[in-house]
Design goal:
The protein is an all-alpha fold. The protein is built from three helices and no strands. The radius of gyration is 27 Å and the shape is elongated. It has one domain.
Length: about 90
């Protein structure tokens, strides 16, 4: 972009507008990124708690279960706890 472009009042104004619009887009993207990171961290921590319980219950401390298998195992544990004692 040449200096002549910015010397025109219209072009200089348009340039400032473009910069403000870009700054707003950057702010929106940063907010979205933060939200996604927080969501990822929440899911990660929940997965790690479930994996740790599975590892402790199975004695397989160096193995991470398949996510579907982990969910089935956790649901079975919940169902077992919800069963009335006989």
């Amino acid at each position: 972009m040449s200096d002549d472009y910015l010397h025109s009042p219209f072009n200089a104004c348009q340039h400032r507008y473009d910069c403000r619009a870009t700054a707003r887009q950057v702010e929106a993207l940063e907010a979205e990124k933060l939200e996604l990171e927080q969501s990822f961290d929440l899911r990660w921590k929940a997965d790690m708690r479930g994996i740790k319980r599975w590892q402790n219950a199975t004695g397989r401390e160096l193995v991470w279960p398949d996510h579907a298998d982990l969910i089935v195992w956790l649901l079975e544990r919940i169902e077992a706890l919800e069963q009335p004692e006989e």
